[in-house]
Protein backbone atom coordinates (compact mmCIF):
# COMPACT_ATOMS: atom_id res chain seq x y z
CA UNK A 1 0.00 0.00 0.00
CA UNK A 2 1.23 3.49 -0.79
CA UNK A 3 3.14 5.20 2.01
CA UNK A 4 2.11 8.64 0.78
CA UNK A 5 -0.08 10.61 3.15
CA UNK A 6 -3.22 12.56 2.33
CA UNK A 7 -4.51 15.35 4.52
CA UNK A 8 -7.84 14.84 6.26
CA UNK A 9 -10.32 17.52 7.25
CA UNK A 10 -14.00 18.28 7.62
CA UNK A 11 -16.13 21.10 6.25
CA UNK A 12 -19.81 22.05 6.36
CA UNK A 13 -21.73 21.16 3.21
CA UNK A 14 -25.30 20.93 2.04
CA UNK A 15 -27.48 18.95 -0.28
CA UNK A 16 -29.49 21.65 -2.00
CA UNK A 17 -33.22 21.31 -1.66
CA UNK A 18 -35.77 23.46 -3.38
CA UNK A 19 -39.07 23.84 -5.16
CA UNK A 20 -38.47 22.33 -8.58
CA UNK A 21 -39.93 23.61 -11.83
CA UNK A 22 -42.45 20.76 -11.99
CA UNK A 23 -43.73 21.59 -8.51
CA UNK A 24 -41.94 18.76 -6.72
CA UNK A 25 -39.92 19.35 -3.58
CA UNK A 26 -36.33 18.28 -3.00
CA UNK A 27 -35.22 17.89 0.63
CA UNK A 28 -32.51 20.16 2.02
CA UNK A 29 -29.78 18.42 4.07
CA UNK A 30 -26.89 19.96 5.97
CA UNK A 31 -23.95 17.66 6.65
CA UNK A 32 -20.24 17.53 7.36
CA UNK A 33 -18.20 16.55 4.31
CA UNK A 34 -14.80 14.88 4.24
CA UNK A 35 -12.01 17.03 2.80
CA UNK A 36 -9.07 15.08 1.37
CA UNK A 37 -5.98 17.00 0.29
CA UNK A 38 -7.96 20.24 0.51
CA UNK A 39 -10.82 19.11 -1.76
CA UNK A 40 -14.23 17.66 -0.83
CA UNK A 41 -14.13 13.91 -1.33
CA UNK A 42 -17.63 14.04 -2.79
CA UNK A 43 -16.29 15.99 -5.78
CA UNK A 44 -14.05 13.05 -6.74
CA UNK A 45 -17.11 10.85 -7.24
CA UNK A 46 -18.54 12.48 -10.37
CA UNK A 47 -22.04 13.95 -10.11
CA UNK A 48 -23.26 12.16 -7.00
CA UNK A 49 -26.34 13.37 -5.13
CA UNK A 50 -25.52 12.10 -1.65
CA UNK A 51 -24.69 13.14 1.92
CA UNK A 52 -22.22 11.85 4.47
CA UNK A 53 -23.42 10.02 7.61
CA UNK A 54 -22.60 13.18 9.57
CA UNK A 55 -25.84 15.04 8.91
CA UNK A 56 -27.14 17.79 11.17
CA UNK A 57 -30.71 16.50 11.28
CA UNK A 58 -29.98 13.11 12.84
CA UNK A 59 -30.38 12.67 16.62
CA UNK A 60 -27.28 13.58 18.66
CA UNK A 61 -26.81 10.00 19.91
CA UNK A 62 -26.76 8.67 16.33
CA UNK A 63 -24.45 11.47 15.20
CA UNK A 64 -22.03 10.59 18.01
CA UNK A 65 -22.24 6.90 17.10
CA UNK A 66 -21.39 7.73 13.47
CA UNK A 67 -18.32 9.71 14.53
CA UNK A 68 -17.12 6.95 16.85
CA UNK A 69 -17.66 4.43 14.08
CA UNK A 70 -15.37 6.41 11.76
CA UNK A 71 -12.83 6.45 14.58
CA UNK A 72 -13.07 2.62 14.58
CA UNK A 73 -14.37 2.59 18.12
CA UNK A 74 -17.20 0.30 16.99
CA UNK A 75 -17.55 -2.63 14.63
CA UNK A 76 -18.02 -1.91 10.93
CA UNK A 77 -21.72 -1.74 9.99
CA UNK A 78 -21.18 -3.68 6.74
CA UNK A 79 -19.41 -6.91 5.86
CA UNK A 80 -15.74 -6.79 5.05
CA UNK A 81 -14.97 -3.87 7.35
CA UNK A 82 -16.91 -1.49 5.12
CA UNK A 83 -18.40 1.84 6.18
CA UNK A 84 -20.91 4.13 4.46
CA UNK A 85 -19.10 7.25 3.29
CA UNK A 86 -22.02 8.80 1.36
CA UNK A 87 -25.64 7.71 1.27
CA UNK A 88 -29.03 8.62 -0.14
CA UNK A 89 -30.09 12.16 0.89
CA UNK A 90 -33.75 11.16 1.05
CA UNK A 91 -33.44 8.07 3.26
CA UNK A 92 -30.89 5.73 4.86
CA UNK A 93 -31.75 2.62 2.84
CA UNK A 94 -28.67 0.90 1.41
CA UNK A 95 -30.89 -0.36 -1.42
CA UNK A 96 -30.95 3.21 -2.79
CA UNK A 97 -27.19 2.95 -3.19
CA UNK A 98 -24.27 4.24 -1.15
CA UNK A 99 -20.57 4.88 -1.51
CA UNK A 100 -18.77 2.56 0.90
CA UNK A 101 -15.13 1.96 1.71
CA UNK A 102 -12.97 -0.15 3.96
CA UNK A 103 -11.63 1.84 6.91
CA UNK A 104 -8.78 0.27 8.83
CA UNK A 105 -5.83 1.14 11.04
CA UNK A 106 -2.23 0.59 9.97
CA UNK A 107 -0.11 1.38 12.99
CA UNK A 108 -1.20 4.84 14.08
CA UNK A 109 -2.49 5.70 10.60
CA UNK A 110 -6.05 5.40 9.29
CA UNK A 111 -6.52 4.06 5.76
CA UNK A 112 -9.60 4.41 3.53
CA UNK A 113 -9.52 2.01 0.58
CA UNK A 114 -11.61 0.02 -1.89
CA UNK A 115 -14.26 2.65 -2.56
CA UNK A 116 -17.33 1.22 -4.26
CA UNK A 117 -20.99 1.80 -5.07
CA UNK A 118 -22.98 -0.64 -2.93
CA UNK A 119 -26.67 -1.56 -2.96
CA UNK A 120 -26.68 -4.80 -0.98
CA UNK A 121 -24.81 -6.82 1.62
CA UNK A 122 -21.93 -7.61 -0.72
CA UNK A 123 -20.00 -5.42 -3.11
CA UNK A 124 -18.37 -6.24 -6.46
CA UNK A 125 -15.20 -4.14 -6.59
CA UNK A 126 -14.46 -5.10 -10.17
CA UNK A 127 -17.87 -4.03 -11.40
CA UNK A 128 -18.79 -1.22 -8.98
CA UNK A 129 -15.49 -0.03 -7.55
CA UNK A 130 -14.37 3.60 -7.83
CA UNK A 131 -11.14 2.76 -9.57
CA UNK A 132 -8.57 5.50 -9.14
CA UNK A 133 -10.12 6.83 -5.92
CA UNK A 134 -7.87 6.03 -2.96
CA UNK A 135 -6.42 4.41 -1.07
CA UNK A 136 -5.98 7.37 1.26
CA UNK A 137 -3.61 7.18 4.22
CA UNK A 138 -4.26 9.72 6.98
CA UNK A 139 -2.03 10.56 9.91
CA UNK A 140 -3.71 9.32 13.07
CA UNK A 141 -3.40 12.51 15.11
CA UNK A 142 -4.85 14.69 12.32
CA UNK A 143 -7.68 12.24 11.63
CA UNK A 144 -8.65 11.82 15.29
CA UNK A 145 -8.40 15.55 15.99
CA UNK A 146 -10.79 16.45 13.17
CA UNK A 147 -13.44 13.89 14.10
CA UNK A 148 -13.07 14.30 17.87
CA UNK A 149 -13.80 18.02 17.49
CA UNK A 150 -17.32 17.02 16.43
CA UNK A 151 -17.73 15.13 19.70
CA UNK A 152 -16.35 17.98 21.78
CA UNK A 153 -18.45 20.75 20.34
CA UNK A 154 -21.04 18.92 18.31
CA UNK A 155 -22.15 20.28 14.97
CA UNK A 156 -25.45 21.55 13.72
CA UNK A 157 -26.40 23.72 10.81
CA UNK A 158 -28.82 26.49 11.71
CA UNK A 159 -31.61 25.59 9.31
CA UNK A 160 -34.22 28.05 10.48
CA UNK A 161 -35.12 31.29 8.75
CA UNK A 162 -36.84 34.41 10.06
CA UNK A 163 -39.12 35.96 7.43
CA UNK A 164 -39.72 39.70 7.88
CA UNK A 165 -42.48 41.54 6.06
CA UNK A 166 -46.11 42.63 6.01
CA UNK A 167 -47.25 40.53 3.03
CA UNK A 168 -48.51 37.62 5.09
CA UNK A 169 -49.90 35.61 2.15
CA UNK A 170 -46.57 35.54 0.29
CA UNK A 171 -44.61 34.82 3.47
CA UNK A 172 -47.01 32.04 4.45
CA UNK A 173 -46.52 30.32 1.08
CA UNK A 174 -42.76 30.78 1.38
CA UNK A 175 -42.71 29.39 4.92
CA UNK A 176 -44.74 26.37 3.82
CA UNK A 177 -42.35 25.69 0.93
CA UNK A 178 -39.30 25.98 3.20
CA UNK A 179 -40.80 23.62 5.76
CA UNK A 180 -41.65 21.15 3.01
CA UNK A 181 -37.96 20.82 2.10
CA UNK A 182 -36.78 20.63 5.71
CA UNK A 183 -35.98 24.27 6.56
CA UNK A 184 -37.79 25.78 9.53
CA UNK A 185 -39.34 29.21 9.02
CA UNK A 186 -41.03 31.81 11.23
CA UNK A 187 -42.83 35.01 10.22
CA UNK A 188 -42.54 38.29 12.10
CA UNK A 189 -42.90 42.02 11.59
CA UNK A 190 -39.60 42.70 13.40
CA UNK A 191 -37.15 41.22 15.92
CA UNK A 192 -37.42 43.89 18.59
CA UNK A 193 -37.12 42.64 22.19
CA UNK A 194 -36.71 39.01 21.10
CA UNK A 195 -34.37 37.19 23.56
CA UNK A 196 -30.94 36.26 22.22
CA UNK A 197 -31.58 32.55 22.82
CA UNK A 198 -34.54 32.71 20.45
CA UNK A 199 -32.61 34.62 17.79
CA UNK A 200 -29.76 32.11 17.99
CA UNK A 201 -31.78 29.42 16.20
CA UNK A 202 -31.80 31.38 12.93
CA UNK A 203 -29.24 31.01 10.19
CA UNK A 204 -30.78 33.62 7.91
CA UNK A 205 -33.19 36.53 7.86
CA UNK A 206 -35.19 37.21 4.69
CA UNK A 207 -36.71 40.63 4.05
CA UNK A 208 -39.73 41.14 1.84
CA UNK A 209 -39.51 43.76 -0.89
CA UNK A 210 -41.82 46.15 0.96
CA UNK A 211 -39.75 46.20 4.16
CA UNK A 212 -38.17 49.63 4.52
CA UNK A 213 -34.56 50.36 5.36
CA UNK A 214 -35.50 51.56 8.81
CA UNK A 215 -37.15 48.24 9.67
CA UNK A 216 -34.23 46.30 8.17
CA UNK A 217 -31.74 48.26 10.24
CA UNK A 218 -33.75 47.54 13.40
CA UNK A 219 -33.64 43.80 12.71
CA UNK A 220 -29.91 43.89 12.08
CA UNK A 221 -29.45 45.83 15.30
CA UNK A 222 -31.37 43.20 17.27
CA UNK A 223 -29.12 40.39 15.99
CA UNK A 224 -26.00 42.52 16.41
CA UNK A 225 -26.92 43.36 20.01
CA UNK A 226 -27.28 39.62 20.69
CA UNK A 227 -23.90 38.94 19.10
CA UNK A 228 -25.38 36.62 16.47
CA UNK A 229 -24.17 36.50 12.89
CA UNK A 230 -26.79 35.59 10.30
CA UNK A 231 -27.10 35.88 6.55
CA UNK A 232 -29.49 38.58 5.31
CA UNK A 233 -31.56 37.99 2.18
CA UNK A 234 -33.24 40.74 0.17
CA UNK A 235 -36.06 39.09 -1.71
CA UNK A 236 -35.79 39.72 -5.45
CA UNK A 237 -39.45 39.12 -6.25
CA UNK A 238 -42.53 37.49 -4.64
CA UNK A 239 -41.85 34.21 -6.48
CA UNK A 240 -41.68 31.35 -3.97
CA UNK A 241 -39.21 29.02 -5.77
CA UNK A 242 -36.91 31.99 -6.38
CA UNK A 243 -37.03 33.07 -2.72
CA UNK A 244 -36.40 29.50 -1.58
CA UNK A 245 -33.30 29.39 -3.78
CA UNK A 246 -32.07 32.73 -2.37
CA UNK A 247 -32.49 31.46 1.18
CA UNK A 248 -30.75 28.17 0.44
CA UNK A 249 -27.79 30.04 -0.96
CA UNK A 250 -27.70 32.19 2.18
CA UNK A 251 -27.72 29.09 4.40
CA UNK A 252 -24.81 27.50 2.55
CA UNK A 253 -22.01 27.35 5.12
CA UNK A 254 -19.52 25.51 2.95
CA UNK A 255 -16.28 27.37 2.16
CA UNK A 256 -16.63 29.22 -1.14
CA UNK A 257 -13.47 27.60 -2.52
CA UNK A 258 -15.00 24.15 -1.93
CA UNK A 259 -18.24 24.66 -3.84
CA UNK A 260 -19.12 23.17 -7.20
CA UNK A 261 -21.09 26.12 -8.50
CA UNK A 262 -19.11 29.33 -8.04
CA UNK A 263 -20.47 31.92 -10.47
CA UNK A 264 -23.73 32.87 -12.16
CA UNK A 265 -24.45 35.91 -14.31
CA UNK A 266 -27.37 36.62 -16.62
CA UNK A 267 -27.20 39.39 -19.18
CA UNK A 268 -29.68 39.83 -21.99
CA UNK A 269 -29.97 36.58 -23.89
CA UNK A 270 -27.42 34.42 -22.11
CA UNK A 271 -26.46 32.93 -18.75
CA UNK A 272 -22.88 32.22 -17.73
CA UNK A 273 -22.16 29.60 -15.07
CA UNK A 274 -18.87 28.42 -13.63
CA UNK A 275 -18.34 25.02 -11.99
CA UNK A 276 -15.25 23.61 -10.30
CA UNK A 277 -15.88 19.91 -10.96
CA UNK A 278 -17.94 17.80 -13.34
CA UNK A 279 -21.57 17.97 -12.24
CA UNK A 280 -25.13 18.22 -13.41
CA UNK A 281 -26.47 21.77 -13.57
CA UNK A 282 -30.09 22.91 -13.79
CA UNK A 283 -30.81 26.44 -15.00
CA UNK A 284 -34.34 27.76 -14.52
CA UNK A 285 -35.74 31.16 -15.52
CA UNK A 286 -38.60 32.77 -13.58
CA UNK A 287 -40.45 35.72 -15.13
CA UNK A 288 -43.17 37.88 -13.66
CA UNK A 289 -45.46 39.57 -16.16
CA UNK A 290 -47.40 42.82 -15.81
CA UNK A 291 -50.27 41.00 -14.11
CA UNK A 292 -47.86 39.49 -11.55
CA UNK A 293 -48.27 36.04 -13.06
CA UNK A 294 -45.19 33.83 -12.77
CA UNK A 295 -43.83 32.01 -15.81
CA UNK A 296 -41.23 29.26 -15.48
CA UNK A 297 -38.81 28.10 -18.17
CA UNK A 298 -36.24 25.31 -17.96
CA UNK A 299 -33.25 26.79 -19.80
CA UNK A 300 -30.71 23.99 -19.28
CA UNK A 301 -30.34 20.60 -17.61
CA UNK A 302 -27.13 18.71 -18.26
CA UNK A 303 -23.67 17.71 -17.08
CA UNK A 304 -20.95 20.34 -17.37
CA UNK A 305 -17.18 19.95 -17.11
CA UNK A 306 -15.10 22.27 -14.91
CA UNK A 307 -14.88 25.82 -16.24
CA UNK A 308 -17.16 28.59 -17.49
CA UNK A 309 -20.13 27.81 -19.70
CA UNK A 310 -22.60 29.96 -21.62
CA UNK A 311 -26.26 29.04 -21.89
CA UNK A 312 -28.50 30.87 -24.36
CA UNK A 313 -31.84 32.11 -23.06
CA UNK A 314 -35.09 32.15 -24.97
CA UNK A 315 -35.90 35.86 -25.40
CA UNK A 316 -39.54 35.20 -24.60
CA UNK A 317 -38.61 33.53 -21.31
CA UNK A 318 -36.37 36.33 -20.10
CA UNK A 319 -38.18 39.50 -21.14
CA UNK A 320 -39.29 41.97 -18.52
CA UNK A 321 -38.53 41.25 -14.84
CA UNK A 322 -36.89 37.83 -14.91
CA UNK A 323 -34.53 35.87 -12.70
CA UNK A 324 -32.28 32.84 -13.10
CA UNK A 325 -31.67 30.01 -10.64
CA UNK A 326 -28.76 27.64 -11.22
CA UNK A 327 -28.41 24.58 -9.02
CA UNK A 328 -26.24 21.52 -8.60
CA UNK A 329 -26.76 18.78 -6.03
CA UNK A 330 -24.89 20.89 -3.47
CA UNK A 331 -25.08 24.53 -4.55
CA UNK A 332 -27.66 27.12 -5.57
CA UNK A 333 -27.06 30.56 -7.10
CA UNK A 334 -29.57 33.24 -8.10
CA UNK A 335 -29.21 36.22 -10.42
CA UNK A 336 -31.50 38.85 -11.88
CA UNK A 337 -31.38 39.05 -15.67
CA UNK A 338 -29.63 42.32 -16.45
CA UNK A 339 -30.45 44.39 -19.51
For the biggest sheet, the summary is: 4 strands, antiparallel
Q: How many strands appear in the DSSP assignment? A: 20
Average predicted confidence as pLDDT: 90
Question: What is the approximate shape?
Answer: globular
Helix segment count? 7
Kindly name the structural category. alpha+beta
The strand line-up of the biggest sheet is 6-7-8-9
Secondary-structure element sequence?
EEEEEHEEEHEHEHEHEHEHEEEEEEE
The domain count comes to 3
The fraction of residues in strands falls at: 35-45%
> What integer value in Å does the Rg equal?
22 Å
Task: Estimate percent helicity.
Answer: 10-25%
- Which runs of at least 5 residues are low in confidence (pLDDT < 50)? none
Q: Give the termini separation.
A: 57 Å
Amino acid sequence: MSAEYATFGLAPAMRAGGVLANGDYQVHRDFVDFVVDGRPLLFRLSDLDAVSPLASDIPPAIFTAQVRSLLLEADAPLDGGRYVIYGCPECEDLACGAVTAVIEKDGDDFVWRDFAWQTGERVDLELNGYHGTGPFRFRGDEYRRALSALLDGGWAGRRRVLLIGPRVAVLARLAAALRAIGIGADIAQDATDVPADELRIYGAVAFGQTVGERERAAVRKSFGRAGIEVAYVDGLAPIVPLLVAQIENALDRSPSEQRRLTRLTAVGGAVEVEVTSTCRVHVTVYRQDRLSRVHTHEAFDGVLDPGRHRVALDPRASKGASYVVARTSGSVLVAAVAR
